[in-house]
Amino acid sequence: MVADDPKNSHLRELEGAKERLTLCRADLLDFESLREAINGCDGVFHTACPVTDNPEEMVEPAVNGTKNVIIAAAEAKVRRVVFTSSIGAVTMDPKRGPDTIVDESCWSDLEFCKNTKNWYCYGKAVGEQAATDVAKEKGVDLVVVNPVLVLGPLLQSTVNASIIHILKYLNGSTKTYANLVQAYVHVRDVALAHILVYETPSASGRYLCAESVLHRGDVVEILAKFFPEYPIPLKCKDETKPRVKRYKISNQKLKDLGLEFTPVKQSLYETVKNLQEKGHLPVALQHDESVIRIQS
Fold first, then answer.
1. What are the CA-CA distances from residue 84 to residues 140, 144, 207, 267 (Å)?
2. CA quadruple 137, 141, 147, 150: dihedral sign
3. Domain 148-202+211-296 belongs to what topology?
4. In the chain, what are the domain boundaries?
5. Which homologous superfamily does the CATH classification assign to the domain defined by 1-147?
């Protein structure tokens, strides 16, 4: 992170930023920059990670960068480190059946990730393992949050990889949807999960951060109901195979900390409204705001 980079301007616009926000230059592979940024902190939230399937760009920052953060946090004697992992470190396991409940005990199969060249999931899994191992070695209190695909309003003006997943169904760039399932969560719930696991003394281990799992067909149906003016694809890319079953996922650990998850229908609605506000989608019709109160 470069403190004066224009892409960080949205952070300076946050409420209270002028009084309470300090941006520091940091590079995950530059230990001294991390030491300087973390020194004097009570806690560290390690959220940075490349989003790529290039193994050279993914694995080293995920592993060595994470180790650097934990070691710098240990030297600074921070109270707790919250590490943002991913559902990618949890669900990539070909041996798991659709009726198995995915919870914090589940891990992605590293050999399967390598064989399928899914370097993002491989990097997140080995990065989380590295964080856990180094934290134990250095005596650092580490708590992990594993978010699924994140929906909701964007702070920045640009579109990130998660939101492109929804935008492509609205702007006409794709004519079909995949026969796949995906777990979703609202960005505010992810932020609150990080705060809860940091502030709750008894919090420990991993926390899956997910509201629900939908088939892509469910996603386009919800979008079409809310926003019928867009060219939303209602045809499956692969209609020759049976519809993939939704897997079950447990978010009970975060619920036990008091987190009330935003229904996925509301998350999808707010995502599209924000894309309109940011100019990524044309606005054609006014919608009944009460419709988003439908429970998923």
1. 15, 6, 10, 20
2. negative
3. Rossmann fold (3.40.50)
4. 1-147, 148-202+211-296
5. NAD(P)-binding Rossmann-like Domain (3.40.50.720)
Instruction: Outline where 39-118 has alpha helix (H).
Output: 55-60, 66-76, 110-115
Q: Is the dihedral of CA 146, 216, 152, 275 positive or negative?
A: positive
Do the domains at 1-147 and 148-202+211-296 have one common CATH topology?
Answer: yes
Instruction: Tally Cβ neighbours within 10 Å of residue 114.
Output: 13
Q: List pLDDT tens digits, range 53-105.
A: 788 778 888 899 999 999 999 999 999 999 999 999 999 999 988 789 999 99
pLDDT tens track for 149-186 = 999 999 888 898 889 999 999 999 999 999 999 999 99
Q: Which residue has 């940011």 as its token pair?
A: 278
Given the residues 18, 95, 124, 273, select the one marked as catalytic.
124
State yes or no: is 138 an active-site residue: no
* Greatest C-alpha distance within the chain: 59
| Tokens 């892509």 belong to residue | 216
Contact, 269 vs 295, CB < 8 A?
Answer: no
Q: What is the pLDDT of residues 150-159, one digit of tens each?
A: 999 998 888 9
Structural tokens at position 295: 């429970």
